[in-house]
Amino acid sequence: RRCVQETETTRDSVLTLQVSIKPQLEDMQLGCTKMVNQLVSVSLIGDVNIWEDVNNLQQDAFPSLVLPGHQSSIKQVAYHHGQQLLVSSDSSGRTLLWKNRQAERIPEIQYKIGTSRLLFSCDLETLYIVSDDLNIISFNLANRTVNKTVNIGANYGGFCVSKKNPNVCYAASERNTIFVFENLTQIREIKVSYVPTAIEVNNDDSLLIIGDKVGNVHIYDLQEDKEIQVLSHSTSAVSSIAVSHGEDKYFATGDSTKIINLWSFSEFKKLTENWVFHNSRVTSLVFSQSNNHVLSCGLDSRVIVWDTQTFKRVADLTNIHRNGVNSAIFDEEGRIVSAGGDNLMKVIKLNNVTIN
Predict the structure, then answer these.
(1) 29: Cβ contacts below 8 Å, ≥ 6 apart
(2) Percent over 70 (pLDDT), the chain
(3) Which of the residue ranges 51-60, 137-146, 180-189, 214-223 would you say has the lowest mean pLDDT?
(4) Which residue has the higher pLDDT, 325 or 73?
């Protein structure tokens, strides 16, 4: 149904309240309640509709406030440090912008399948939204419009953005190909002899770090246009790669079983002997702004914070989400924001660890 109805003492006294000009299935209202002088209803896809000043509502009135929400597994979360803006996207492709704990829906962005990656451009003006089938959208944050869309139409093998040029991004497909885009126009295509499963670029855009399906990490020199190193991470598919901020000091790799490794850029040397405290697929890795800590999360519903100086765990949070943790980041205050398979996001403050 497209409306909620408040019935008074007689059958003829009915006030109809609209929630959509052109109602669709997602506008179906699952329930409503009255709180003091407010009427609140919840839709099929998790929107909370609020009508203020109930006693003075007019016929066919629309909600005075709509609070969007997620009704399916939240796949990705990203944080904009400049605007203190949080972005979340779920397995249905619904993408929300969160500011001051209130969400704004991006109606133009709605995949039939889930989101694999959310990333901001290096100038923080563009949001890249990437689906599981490598449909890439660039979204302008200032005017809230879609700049451009490109559909590669292949299985997702990784996505990253340039650290220097806000218009450049890199997409890997499981068809053994790396695509380089500028303003989402393809400018280069790199063929490789393996199946990519994760990708990152270093801070001066000279090297690609590419994980493959059998646990190797390939270092590709973009200037020389050739592979210069192959590193052995494990024997399982590399599922996540992260690069330290500002300088090429560290990069971290995680795989589809449970293993995480920290590497030195200077010698491409492994600094750790397999951080193995996860019990299943590592879904996300991210460095703190100071590079003193690495955050990992996994399908084992666990979030772990690692010290890059001592190589020790400094926080180990279990059972954070039902059905696994799909993504996690640090916000500007060093808190952890996690997204889970239980359709929830959580903000976690660590009491005994200072993250900067």
Answers:
(1) 1, 2, 3, 4, 19, 41, 42, 43, 44, 49
(2) 92
(3) 51-60
(4) 325
273-279: Cβ within 8 A, 24+ apart = 274/234, 275/304, 275/306, 275/311, 275/313, 277/302, 277/304, 277/313, 277/316, 278/254, 278/302, 278/304
* Separation of alpha carbons 126 and 147, rounded Å: 9
The rounded distance, in Å, linking the Cα atoms of 80 and 304 is 22
What percent of the chain shows pLDDT beyond 90? Answer: 57
Do residues 217 and 238 touch, judged by C-beta distance below 8 A? yes
Question: What is the number of other CB atoms lying within 10 angstroms of the CB of residue 333?
Answer: 10
Rounded Cα distance between 140 and 146, Å, is: 6
Contact present, 291 and 306 (Cβ < 8 Å): no
Distance of CA 164 to the CA centre of its chain: 21
Q: pLDDT tens, 67-125? A: 677 878 889 999 988 888 889 988 877 888 888 767 777 765 655 567 889 999 999 99
8 Å CB contact between 212 and 220: no
Walk across the sheet containing 95-99 and list its strands: 74-80, 85-90, 95-99, 102-105
- The token pair at 125 is 């003006």
Looking at the DSSP bridge assignments, the partners of residue 305 are: 295, 315
Instruction: List, as one string, the DSSP characters of 236-265.
Output: S-EEEEEE-SSSSSEEEEEESSS-EEEEET
Question: Which of residues 70 and 254 earns the better pLDDT score?
Answer: 254
Distance in angstroms between the alpha carbons of the first and the last residue of the chain: 48
Per-residue model confidence (pLDDT) at position 108: 58
Round to whole Å and give the CA distance between 314 and 130: 32
The neighbour count for residue 335, using CB atoms within 10 Å, is 15
Where would I find the H helices in the chain? none
